[in-house]
Task: structure prediction
Amino acid sequence: MKILIDTNIIIHREASSVVHNDVGILFRWIDNLHYKKCVHPISVEELNQHKDPKTKKAINLKLGNYNILKTIAPLSEEVKKLSEKFDNCQNDINDTIILNELFEKRVDLIITEDKKLHQKASSLGISGNIFSIDAFLEKVTAENPEFTEYKILSVKKEYFGNIDLAHPFFSSLKNNYSGFKKWFNKKSDETAYVCRSDKDLMAFLYLKVENKDENYFDIEPQFLPKKRLKIGTLKVALNGFRLGERFLKIVFDNAIRFNVQEIYVTIFKEGIEQEILINLLEDFGFSFHGYKNSVDGKESVYVRKIDKTVKKNEPRLSYPFLSTSGNVFIVPIYPQYHTELFPDSILNNESPFDFIENEPYRNAISKVYISRSFERNLCAGDLIVFYRTGGYYKGVVSTIGIVENIITDINSEKEFIRLCRKRSVFTDKELSEHWNYRIYIRPFIVNFLYSYSLPKRINLKRLIEIGVISDINSVPRGFEKITTQNFKDILRECQADESIVVD
Result:
């Protein structure tokens, strides 16, 4: 298999003598699977235009580790039309020329963090063969579990003082911020969210609530007085386990808990790590605000408003808020899959140690539900109440999701498995069984956002008493519509924070 690697990834990997562990994981996977690491001649030209002569020399010495494409494919007519529509500068044109190699099937995959390249690939119908680093790691991890390095991943809060600052995980933060060590040590009695694989750190998150009197003299344009949640530090190692989304959900949960008006983060310097983080933040509604002046230079400031409005057709941009302006559905989920898919909705009688974060679908905010329901008229922004089956007393409602989209037009088992694999609780074998279970009624896919875990669980008995379900024989078997009043009754009975509902 020939994998074409984008210019920025090569720069990040080869620009210095420092081994970047995150991208190093990507390259180890490619080598272990005996794939060819390819570089486009245009990337070589771009690398040789680097301003730093030492960097340029270091990269050229290491280009021998790659397969440089010997020829460049002529642009197809479809790609020419795409270029006329999307390309505004030489860099855009270069990206299109690189993408053309995939369109013409001269390479099998492209790995890039460039969002515009992903959008172009989608327009050409080849998005299934272009991956971000984390998405590629997720794919090969699912396909090759015997090679997986991370056996135990768990998220918990720890005191700064118990976290080893000398761990290589913190190297990039110490290199970028001259005062990071001093700042970290001053926080010794405060807590942060961490994720470990055995003893290795894989992710770190520090949050700070700031009130309206906070001084923002060093941010331009200056912030207006508001209650804010600051993402003080967020670093996630690349590993294919969607830890970025897992930690972003923690951010949103805290924003709701502390009733803030905005979330913000400052990001220093350019590089592949920062590009990955910015892409994730922008996917969930963060936008560039301006700059913060620090002793190390200018830091970019990204802000996400928590203004309690809902963008029904783009629910990520107003996540985690809910609107009942669309339909509300209740749908069953079997106990063996429930906490696998919704780790924050764990029941009191379940052990958290059985649901450690070593599967991508557990960590993802965006998840997949597979159904053969007769009801298929779900739209973006519709709400889903998940009912964990279990009978009259043990069956409970636990979780609320927001529909992103549904996919009903699926042409093959291979396509079905590809579409589900990243965010489904099922193995490839189980997905194959689902596809072939009833060949006259093929399953469809609901992509949804894992939005809210209900604080208190009410059982089937109570759902019948308050009129959500008519009787024990009417337990949902697929997607069943319920009324807005039914939904509000569930929120009230479950002692939910009703401020998440915006109408």
